[in-house]
Design a protein that fits this description.
Radius of gyration: 20 Å
CATH class of the largest domain: Alpha Beta
GO molecular function: hydrolase activity; nucleotide binding
Strand order of the largest sheet: 3-2-4-1-5-6-7
Function: Zinc chaperone that directly transfers zinc cofactor to target proteins, thereby activating them. Zinc is transferred from the CXCC motif in the GTPase domain to the zinc binding site in target proteins in a process requiring GTP hydrolysis.
Oligomer: single chain
Keywords: Chaperone, Hydrolase, Nucleotide-binding
Organism: Sulfurospirillum halorespirans DSM 13726
Number of domains: 2
Structural class: alpha/beta
Bound molecules: guanosine-5'-triphosphate
Strand content: 25-35%
Protein name: Putative GTPase
Length: about 350
Amino acid sequence: MAAPAVADETLSHTPLPVTLLTGFLGSGKTTLINYLLEHNHGERIAIIENEFGAVNIDGALLKSTEDVEIVELSNGCVCCSIRGELTQALHELLAKIDSGAFRADRLLLETTGLADPAPIVQAFFVDEIIRERIMLDAVITLVDAIHILKQLDEHRVAASQIGFADRIILTKADSVDEAHKEMVLSRIHAINAKAEIFEAYQGELPKEIWIGIGAFDLSDSLHVNQGFYQAKDAKNIQFKSFSAQKQTQSWSDDITSYVFEAGELDIKKIGAFMETLVEEYGNDMLRYKGVLAVESDERRLIVQGVHKVVGFDFGSPFEDERKSLLVVIGRYLPYEELKVQFLQTIA
Ligand SMILES: Nc1nc2c(ncn2[C@@H]2O[C@H](COP(=O)(O)OP(=O)(O)OP(=O)(O)O)[C@@H](O)[C@H]2O)c(=O)[nH]1
């Protein structure tokens, strides 16, 4: 009789939310986490850290709080050993929680600056137990305003980190002039048109901006970004539209945003379009998300995916105009051809 009781209890767990924090070397991940820990009240956070050489985050600061559990993955880069070390660490953490040895309200996974988020994100959808017990809240990418242009020119992974982001935190904007910042914003936006961008100085951001945002929820909205949030400090955050000159810049990042827009769609046709798209181009599609209006249902049809892992679900009904928007962040997609096919799915 004992076994079924354990199984029932396991099923009844509310999934543990995990925030994936990524960003190139030195982009300010530790600074942001430290600010969070200093201002965290009451929530118990388990931090899975993946550092080359096991460089720990500020030990003194961590020791000062009882609400943090650190799990270190020091065996190289998490993206290279994803099915092994990360999955195992997550299982061990769940076992600790189940045994009552640790209580966690959420997880924070800090990757190394050189990690490609692709396999890490996929790990949360592949393992059955992890899929059931842990829920990916969002991918947060830090971007170093001083160095990102060079990093993008020299390291493919930098574009992948931006491409995977649900939200982007721009750091060190205090150390660049306006023209440079605008160029950085334009380039980020060209890679990822859907992630909202927040500036932060020395990690000073209210945690609500990057923790618990539910980017994979069905209620999450989707839009193409028109600007960024300028933050003088944690209390003073203002939306600013992108500069009008942004389109005049030129660069050649292979990862870019493809935007598909239409009115009401035929559910069978859009289903077939998505199936073919994912089958043929899934390997080149980092992240994609659609909020679609289908003729047969008043609710929003939400589609989201990471490479070939795709999910469809109905969300809440449309509040305003019934419009379909699909944003794909990928590389080398035949956009014009796909746009024609997408428009052929109109009801
Ligand atoms: N000027 C300025 N410096 C910053 C800001 N945020 C972080 N830094 C500095 O950038 C350096 C790197 O920050 P970290 O927080 O260690 O970066 P990281 O992403 O954890 O670094 P790795 O783990 O080595 O990849 C530190 O010296 C920080 O003080 C900022 O908003 N402005």
